[in-house]
Amino acid sequence: MPGTHSAKDIHEDINCPAACSSRAAKFTELQPLMANIEPPREHDNSPVDPEQPGPRNQQGAGARFLKGVSYFSGDMKVFGKWMEKQFFLLQLLDWVLRGAAQVMFVNNPLSGLIIFAGLILQNYWWALNGFVGTLFATISALILQQNRGAIASGLYGYNGILVGLLMAVFSNKGDWYWWLLLPNIFLSMMCPIVSSALASINSRWDLPVFTLPFNILVCLHIVATGHYNHHFPQVLIQPRSELPNITWAEIDVSKLFMSVPVGVGQVYGCDNPWTGGIFIISLFISSPITCAHAVLGSAVGMVSGLALAAPFEDIYFGLWGYNCVLACIAIGGMFYALTWQVHLLAIACAFFCAYLGSAIANVMSTFGLPSCTWPFCLSALTFLLLTTGISAVFKLPLAKVTYPEKNLRYFWKLKKQEKIQTADKERIESEEEQKRIKEEVVMNEKEQLRLELERLEERRGEGEASDDKDEEVEQQGTEDVRHDDLTEVAVADLV
Amino acid sequence: MPGTHSAKDIHEDINCPAACSSRAAKFTELQPLMANIEPPREHDNSPVDPEQPGPRNQQGAGARFLKGVSYFSGDMKVFGKWMEKQFFLLQLLDWVLRGAAQVMFVNNPLSGLIIFAGLILQNYWWALNGFVGTLFATISALILQQNRGAIASGLYGYNGILVGLLMAVFSNKGDWYWWLLLPNIFLSMMCPIVSSALASINSRWDLPVFTLPFNILVCLHIVATGHYNHHFPQVLIQPRSELPNITWAEIDVSKLFMSVPVGVGQVYGCDNPWTGGIFIISLFISSPITCAHAVLGSAVGMVSGLALAAPFEDIYFGLWGYNCVLACIAIGGMFYALTWQVHLLAIACAFFCAYLGSAIANVMSTFGLPSCTWPFCLSALTFLLLTTGISAVFKLPLAKVTYPEKNLRYFWKLKKQEKIQTADKERIESEEEQKRIKEEVVMNEKEQLRLELERLEERRGEGEASDDKDEEVEQQGTEDVRHDDLTEVAVADLV
Amino acid sequence: MPGTHSAKDIHEDINCPAACSSRAAKFTELQPLMANIEPPREHDNSPVDPEQPGPRNQQGAGARFLKGVSYFSGDMKVFGKWMEKQFFLLQLLDWVLRGAAQVMFVNNPLSGLIIFAGLILQNYWWALNGFVGTLFATISALILQQNRGAIASGLYGYNGILVGLLMAVFSNKGDWYWWLLLPNIFLSMMCPIVSSALASINSRWDLPVFTLPFNILVCLHIVATGHYNHHFPQVLIQPRSELPNITWAEIDVSKLFMSVPVGVGQVYGCDNPWTGGIFIISLFISSPITCAHAVLGSAVGMVSGLALAAPFEDIYFGLWGYNCVLACIAIGGMFYALTWQVHLLAIACAFFCAYLGSAIANVMSTFGLPSCTWPFCLSALTFLLLTTGISAVFKLPLAKVTYPEKNLRYFWKLKKQEKIQTADKERIESEEEQKRIKEEVVMNEKEQLRLELERLEERRGEGEASDDKDEEVEQQGTEDVRHDDLTEVAVADLV
User: For an interface test with C, which of A439, A444, A480 has the most C Cβ atoms less than 10 Å from its Cβ?
Assistant: First the structure.
C-alpha cells in the first residue's frame, strides 16, 4: 500500500527526527538499494493495468495493442503479481532473471532472459558463472531476510551476476575451472551484506548503491589473489609505460561503429558485438528511453576515447563505452525525470565518466586491477548529488524510481498538480491558511522559547565571557546572531 | 546517571532535530568512540556490585566466588570507581593499562598489565614505545578535554599503544634508536584528534572508530618517511612479483597450530607464540567469550591463508590471523548480542576479513606499507552497517556496549521486557492508547497541513507547470504522490 | 536578509527534520561551500559601513582613516553592493577576481587583482589558463543556477583558477599549447558540479568543500592522460627509489628563508619568490590575520621538511610550504574564532599537514601524480571535525564564516551576550521560564507516550522474546534501558 505507507512516513518524519527512532532509520536503510522496492500491491482492485486507462471508443485497437505491450514492457508488474502465487522455485527464477536485467536498471524478467541468451552466445562458462552468482546472491539476501520487495525486483541479484561473470572473465585458468565456483559462491553471498552496508550509508543522501558491491568484491578477489597465485591466478594487467603507437590513417571506421554495441556488451564483460546487439534489444523491450541512452552513452565513450588519444584496440574492444552506457542510462531518465536539460546533463555525465574511466583504469592497473564499473558509480553518484536551482532537473525520490517512462509520468503528474494548486490557491486567497499559519507560529515560538532556555542554561555553564571590546560589536551584527533575538529583548527590558 | 541522561536525550531528540541543536550534536559526537563511556556513577548507592545480586542462601559459596571473580573480570567497574578517589598519577596508570587492553575491546587494567608483561617478553624497546604511545595519547586527550569517561575507559589510549608499537616494529634503525620517540610522541598526541574527527563521522551511523586512527597515523608515518629516509627509515616492503614456491608436502603442522596464538600476538605486532598465549590469558580474565572468538578468528585466518595459497611463512608468522581475531571479537558478542546467528555472522566476517586482508596487503605493499589493521576495520564496519530483518541479530546501541557477557544480559533483559509488554498490552486491549493515538493523529494532521502550505507556497514560485499529457496521468498514480492527498480534496471541492 | 532568514531556518529546524522537507535539505546543501554566501543585503539602510560605527568626536581622523580602509579591506562588502547595480560583464569580472582570491579564503576583488598581477609576473600562459578556468567555472555555476550569493563571493571560481593553472603547470607540451584550453574549459565547467556534489556530503557536518573539487579534477586529468599521451602529455613524476643525497653542510640559508614566500606562491603553483611576496601583500590588504598565518604556515612547512630529511631542492621549491599555508589559514581564525588555543591548534595542524603532505606526495607519485592540495584538505577537515570540551575553541557555523577579523568580532559578541544573559538570568531567577519548561515537559511526555506506543507495536511484531535467565537481569540495568520507564510502570501496576 504505497499511499498509506507514504502517509505514515510523513507522520514519522514530522514527529520524530532521524536519530530518535531507530525503527524509522532501519526501515529507510533497508529500502534504498536502487529502485521501487514496494512489495507488489494486493489492494489494486482495478482489473486492468492502471497505467493504461482502458480502451476508449475512439482509440480501440491501438489501446488494446498498448495494453498488450504493457504486459511485457516496463517492469512487468502484472506478471510479477501473478508470480507471487506460484511455486517458490519459479519465483526464484523470476528474481534471478530480473536481477540479470537490473545491471542495466531494467526490472523485467523477459529482458533478463534475453540477456542470458546473449551471455550463452558469448561463452557458456561465463553464463553459468553469472547464473550461479545471481542465484546465490539472491539466496543470501533471503537468508539475511532483506526486504522482500527489493529481492523480488532483482535488486540483490545484479551484483551477483556481475561478480560471477567478471570473476570468470578475469580468471587466468581458462574456462571450466570448476574450483572457481567456490570463491564465486562465497563472494556472491557477500553481495547482499556489502549492498546492505553501503545502502545504510548512501540512504542518508537518498542515493542508490549502483554496482559498488560488485566493484568492491571483484576488485577484492582479483587483488587478493593476483596474477601470481597457485589457486586462483588472474589475467595480468600492467600499467602503460610507453607511448602507444597511434596512426590516424590506420583507423578502422567499421570497427569504430561496431564498438557501440560492443560497449553495451562490455557492461557484462562481453566483447561479441552480436551479444551487445541482443542486450540493446532487451533494453528496448523494457524501456525505449533506456535503450536510446545506452546507445548514446556508448557513442560518447567512443568519441572520448578518440579525443584522449586512447589506443584504437581499447576503443574497438568497448572499454571506453560500458561505463558511459550505464552513466547515461542512470542520469538520462532513470534517477532524474527526463527533460531536455536532463538529457544534456546525461551527456555531460557520460563525457565525465569517460574521462574518469581513463583515470581509474590507469590508477588501478598499477595494482593489476581492471577498472570494473567504478567510473560509472563515481560519476553517476556525483551527478546525483548535484543540487541545482533549475526546476526542470527533478531528482526522483529513490522510492519512486521505476523506469524512465513511468518516472516521466510521475513527474508530469506532479507538475500538473502544482499548477492546479497554484491557480487554486490564488483563488481561496489564503484565508484559512493564514489563520492556521498563525497558530503554528505561536506554537513555534513556544518551542523556540524552550530552546532559548536550554541555550541559556548551557551558556551559564560556560560562564567566562570576554566582554572587552564591547564597543566594537557592530550594530548590524545583532541580527546576524541567530538565536538571540528573544533573549535580547528580555535583556533590553531589564537593562 | 545513565537513566536520567537517556531520558534527557530522548527529549532532545523529539523536540530538536540533529541540525538545530549544536550542543546535542557536539555531545553525541564526543561520545561514540567505542564503548560505554558514561562517567562512573556516583549515585550508585548499592554497596555490592549490582551485576552480582548478592549471595543468596541456596548458592552461598558459589555466589561469593562469583562476586570475587567479578572484582577483576569484566570491566572492573568497582575498581574503576575506587580509582576515582586516588592520586592522579595512579589514575593515569589505570587509564594507560585499560588503553593497552582496549586494542582487544577489553576495558580491564589487569588485562592491560598482563599484555604489557607479554610485550616485555617480546621486546623491551617495543614495550617502551607502546607505553610512551599510550601515555601521550591519553595526556593529549586530557589536554583536548575529551570525554572523561571515555578517557577513563582507555578509549583514547589503544590507538596510542598501537602507534608506538608498530612504529618501533617497522623502523629500520633497529632497537634503542631514541630519536624515534619524537615522531612517536607527536603521532600519539595526534591520536585523539583523529579519533575525535572520525567519531564525528562514524557517530552518524552509531559506529565505533575501531583502530582507524592508528591505521591512518602509522601508514602516514611509514609512507611519509619510507625506506629511503635519512632520519626515520622504514623496513622495506615490496609487492610480490613472482609465483611463490608452495609445496604442500613441506607444510609444518606444528607451526601451523602455533600460528593461532601467534595470530593473536600479531594484533600488537608480536611474533612470539608465548606472548600470544599471554594475550589469550589476559582476554580470558576479562571475558571468556572474547577469548573464544579471538582463538576462533585466528584459526579462521589460518584456514583462509591455506585456501588462498598464501606462502606458508606468512601464515606461520600470524599475518593471516590478527585481523580475523579482531573482526571475530568485534562481531561475535561485542557490538552484536551473541546468539548463534551472530556467531555464524562473526565467522563469515572473519573469512571476509581474511580475504580483504590479502587484498589490502597486496595493494599497500605497492607503497611499501604493511596492511596494519585496515582489513579488520573495513570488514567489521561493513558487518556493523548491515541491516537485516533477523530479530536474533541485535546490534547494541554504541553507548550500551561494554563486554560480551554484559551485552548479552542487556539483550536478554530487553527481550524479556518485550515479552511482558506484549502480553500486557494484549490485556489492556489498547483502550487509552487508541485515544491518545487519535489525539496525536489530529496533531499530526495539523502539522501536515502546515507543511502542505509551505509546499504550496514553494510551488507557486516554480510556476511553469507543464500540463500537456494530462490524460496520461494514471489514476493509480494519485495515491503514489506523497504530499497531495489534502490539497487534492480542496481542489476537488472547487473544480 | 540574513536575520529573517536565520529565524526562518530555526523554525524549519524545529518543526521539520532533515529528511521530511526536501526543500530545506536542498537549501542547506546549496549553501555550504565555504563562507558567507548570503546575497548582499538590499535592506541595509545605514548609509555608512555598519562595521565602522561612524566617526565619533574623540577619534575623528583615525576613525575616518579606518572607514577608508574598510572600503577595500575585508570582504569589500560596500563595493560588492555597489557592483550589483552595474553592467553584467563588470559583475562577472568582480566574481572572477573574488574567485581568484578565494583560493586563500579571501573574498576581495582587489586581492584577486593583485594575485593576477603576481601570476602574470610568473608566466603569461599560466595566468591566461587561470583566468579562463575561473571564468568558465563561474559561468558554469550560473548556468547550473547555483546560489547567487556564493557565486558573487567567488566560491565557484577558486577551484576553476587552480584547475586552469595547474593543468598548464603540469602539461608537458610547454607554454602556448592552445589545445590545452579544451580540457581546461571542460574541467573548469565540471567544477561547480563536483563542488555541489561534495557540498551535499560535507554540509552534513557543516564543513566546507575546500579545494577538493580542484584536487579531484586535476588528478583526474593528469592520471587520465599521463606522461605517455599523444594529445595531453603530463610532466613525468616518479616515486623516489634511492637515498637522496643530503649533506647538512650544503644547506643554503638564504634560499631556505626565500622558501617562505615561495611556499605561499606555490599555492597557485608559482615558484617565483616575488610572486609569493605579491600574494602575501594581497592577503595583508584583506586580512592581516590571514597574512600572518600564511607566513607562519609556510615556515612550519619548511621546518617539517628539514625534520623529515626532505631533499633541500623540494624545500627551496616551496613544496613543503603551500599546504601548510592553507591549513594554517583555515584553522587559524578562518573557521575557528582566533584565540591563543586556536593559534596553537593551527600550528599543530600545519605540522600534521606537512607530515601528511610528505605521505601523500609519496603515494601519489606512484601514479605519476603531484600531491596537489590534498594534504591541506584532509588535515583541515580532520581538525574541523574535532570536537573538544575547550570553550575557547569555537568553530563558527559555516554560514557565519567571513574573514578572521569579523569572525572574531562575532565570537566576542556571542561571548558578551552570554555573559549578560548569565547575569540576567540569575536575576529573574527563572520564574516564568520554569513555568514554561513545565508546560513543555508535559508536551514532551505526551510525545514520548506516543513513541512508546509505536515501539510497543513494533515489538509485538518481533514477539518471540527469550525469557530464560530472567533472574540474572540486574536491578541497576532497569534504568539503563532507555525507553522502558513508562511501560514499566504500567507493567508494575498490573503484575
Answer: A480
